[in-house]
Amino acid sequence: MPLLGRVRTEPRSHAVALVAALGVGVALATVHWLGLIAAGALASLVAPTVRRGVAYALGAGIVALAAFAVGLGSAAAAVPGMRPVVYLTVGAGLALPLFGSLARAVVS
Q1: What is the DSSP string of 18-75?
Q2: Distances (CA, A) of 46 to 41, 55, 69
Q3: What is the pLDDT of residues 47-77, one digit of tens each?
């Protein structure tokens, strides 16, 4: 069985691959915004179905946004006064990984 097929069917290797994909994707997202697309693509490629791939990509976006929020630290108090930028940040944090999840539909 090919590696990707095994990752999609065996629970243990699936969990390890998903955590690794999220880790690499969020690490890439800290360097450049294209990392959000890569995070969605990596997370969705380990999914057994396209629908779950979309859900995994959305989860990758949420993890990236949570990491960003933690990284703000004490500057988080200024966030409510910066509404347009916050909307863009949340929108990009959720939409770009979803765009990356198209990779799962192409591979299937």
Answers
A1: HHHHHHHHHHHHHH-THHHHHHHHHHHHT-SSHHHHHHHHHHHHHHHHHHHHHHHGGG
A2: 9, 12, 26
A3: 999 999 999 999 999 999 999 989 888 888 8
Kindly report whether the global pTM for this prediction surpasses the value 0.70. Answer: yes
Domain boundaries defined on the chain: 3-107
Q: CA torsion, points 94, 99, 102, 103, in degrees to nearest 10?
A: -100
Write down the pLDDT at residue 103.
92
Nearest CA-CA partner of 36 in 76, 8, 72, 65: 65
Q: Give the Å distances, CA to CA, from 39 to 32, 79, 104.
A: 11, 25, 12
CA-CA distance, 28 to 40, in Å (whole number)? Answer: 11
